[in-house]
Amino acid sequence: MARSALLNVMVQAALKAGKSLARDFGEVQNLQVSVKGPGDYVSQADRKAEKIIRDELLKARPTYGFLGEESEEIKGTDGAHRWIVDPLDGTTNFLHGIPQFAVSIALERNGEVVAGVVFNPATDELYTAERGSGAFMNDRRLRVAARKVLSDCVIGCGMPHLGRGNHGKFLVELRHVMGEVSGVRRLGAAALDLAYVAAGRFDGFWENNLSAWDIAAGMILIREAGGFASEWDGGANSLESGEIVAGNEHIHKALMEVIKRPIPTK
C-alpha cells in the first residue's frame, strides 16, 4: 500500500516506540512502577515511549502541536495540526504481562482526525488509516464486519475500575447489551478494541470516560474501514466528550439504542 509522507512518519514513530516497549515488556517484572492514581499505573516504559514518539514526530514536523497522555500539551505554531498520542494504551495489561497493549498515534487537522496508527508490538500488528485512503492491518485492507443483527454479534466494551466511572450505570448498560448479543468482551485497551472493530473481529464497541488519545486513531480506522464511530447520541465530538459507540451502519445504530435504554425503576 502507498503511504503519505506524514503517515510514514507516524508509522516509524510507532514502530520505534513499540520496539522499546517490547524490550520492557520482556522485563516487565523488573520495571519500576509509580502510582499515578487509583488503579491507573504509569511506568518508565510509558514515559520513555512517549518521549520517543514526541521526538520523532516533532523532528519531522516541528510546528505541529502535540497532545500526549504523559506530558503537558505542546501548542504548535502551525495552528492547524496536532498529534494526539497514547504511548502505551493498556498500561495495566502491560504491567501484568498481558500482551494486549498498543501505541496509538493520530493526526488532527483543523479539528478533524485525518490519519491514525495503532501498533501492538506483542503481536506485531500494525493498523493504519488515512482519510479517503482506507484502513489496513499489516498492509491488508480492512473492512468492518457485515453482521446486521445484534444477536449475531460480539461486542467490545470498556469497564470502569477502581476510582473511575459510574459502576452502577455501567452495570445497567452491560445488562441491556448482554441480553441482545452473542458475546461481550473487555480487553482493556480501547485503541486496540477500536482497531478490532475496523478489522471485523468485534462487531461493535462502546465506552465512555475516555480521553482523546484513547480513541482518536481508532475512530479513523473504523471510518476508513466502512464503519461508524460517534458519541452515544450520534454526535461528532467524541474527542471532547469521551463517549464512543462504534460498528457498521446497522450495529452502530442498534447499539446506540440499547446502551441508552433507561435504568429500570424496579
Automatic annotation (TrEMBL):
**Gene Ontology BP terms:** inositol metabolic process; phosphatidylinositol phosphate biosynthetic process; signal transduction
Please tell me the species this chain comes from. Answer: Ferirhizobium litorale
Positions annotated to bind Mg(2+): 69, 86, 88-89, 214
Q: Which Gene3D superfamilies match?
A: 3.40.190.80, Fructose-1,6-Bisphosphatase, subunit A, domain 1
Q: Tell me the PANTHER family matching this sequence.
A: INOSITOL MONOPHOSPHATASE, INOSITOL-1-MONOPHOSPHATASE-RELATED
According to the UniProt entry, what is the EC number of this protein? 3.1.3.25
EC class of the enzyme, as a word: hydrolase
InterPro entries, alphabetically?
A: IMPase (IPR033942), Inositol_monoP_metal-BS (IPR020583), Inositol_monophosphatase-like (IPR000760), Inositol_monophosphatase_CS (IPR020550), Inositol_monophosphatase_SuhB (IPR022337)
Q: Which residues cross the membrane?
A: none
Any coiled-coil ranges, and where?
none
What are its cofactors? Answer: Mg(2+)
| Record keywords, A-Z | Hydrolase, Magnesium, Metal-binding
State the family it belongs to: Belongs to the inositol monophosphatase superfamily.
A Pfam match is Inositol_P
Q: Which reaction does it catalyse?
A: a myo-inositol phosphate + H2O = myo-inositol + phosphate
Q: What is this protein called?
A: Inositol-1-monophosphatase
Molecular function in Gene Ontology: inositol monophosphate 1-phosphatase activity; metal ion binding
